[in-house]
Specification:
Blueprint (H helix, E strand, L loop, with lengths): L23 H9 L19 H18 L10 E3 L13 E8 L12 E5 L2 E4 L3 E7 L7 E2 L27 E6 L3 E6 L9 E6 L26 H11 L13 H5 L6 H7 L1 E2 L1 H8 L16 E5 L3 E5 L7 E3 L14 H5 L19 E5 L5 E5 L2 E2 L21 E3 L11
Parallel strand pairs: 2-5, 4-9
Antiparallel strand pairs: 1-7, 2-3, 4-10, 5-7, 6-8, 8-9, 11-12, 13-17, 14-15, 15-16
Length: 413
Amino acid sequence: MSPPTDRTEESTDRPRVEWFGFERRSLLQALGAGASLSLASGTASASGEESDGEVAAAETAEERTDERNGSNRIDPVFGYPTTDAEGIPAGLEPDHVVELHREFPEDPADPERTSVFHFEPSGLHVSAGDIVAFVYTDPNHTITAYHPGHGFQRRVPEGVPAFSSPIVQKDGAWLYRFERDGVYDLYCGPHEIAGMAMRIVVGELVEGELPDYVESFEAEPPLFAPLSPAALENELNAESTPNDDCEWPWPTDGQVLASEALDPLAVQEAGEVPFAAVADELGVVFDHDDTDETTPTVQARDHPEYGTVLVGPDGMTVYAFDNDVQGAGESACTGECADAWPPLTVEGEPVAGDDVAASLETFDRETGETQVMAAGRPLYYFARDEEPGDAEGQGVNDVWWVLDPSGAPIRTE
């Protein structure tokens, strides 16, 4: 903002896009203090400007949720907020959980590091009618649809209203039921300018029939079109001498949503895409552990050919080896075999994801690594699998098999 001596009465009447000039310190203080106003858009507002079709769709969704949940209704615009994520009412149990994070630098005094704002996971595949619980690990976030009612390009299916959460306290949650198939791009109002966005894919998408907005991100208001680090750096550097050579420290929401990790078909195939995958692609540095308690060591994911199979923390398919003796606590795959079939290893105790029925145990390999077992069977990756959903190792030499959620091999010809 301008110094008080430079302000005039008329300055308060100028449109926001004209008085965007601010010093870098003001911007960082606004984000660091948890400002509830998004710098690039309105936040957590619900528009009443939907078309007749959208209103009808909202009313229909409202009737459905009324029938299912009685008084505990998930509103199609305002969702269902609660201050206690552990006390969600019966009948509203979520099918999926997304956490809202602000990651602080390991060394707060490091001038090269900034906080990182993100959804975890940042990509999620759900079925129509599923409830998603967004859990606030920090306060001062929203879950808001990219929608013309919020001043943005529509990035949710036609007929979906301009929905948004309120700001909920830490350890609270906001529930939303995703009724219509399609691609939903969401952002956090206060931290949208710092790239806090995510993608939810509902139902089964078909290649070649994706919505146009997947390929084209249009930022609002026009000042930010296209929203890029260079445009933001120009705004910072142009307004005051102390901001010379300022570099924008965060990714933009457009960069996050355009990442290959959040390609809708990749999200659909993986089931969940952690923010780490987006961060690695964009060069964002933050302190995280891919195998900590927030990311299960072994997860269950749908596969188009083999049904529900077990995968590792990164979504890659895991296999059992017939030459291993179930329950023996040792591996028959060492040396060159382990180069082609790397073991799934863990530091500490393994964590089972939702729908994993197999008991998880570990044993120490000769190399000193700790390998994970499901139902007594050591788990391995296959070196030729390149991305989540690949299962090129199935049936190799009639001894390598994907596993079902109970840990039993799925044997196919």
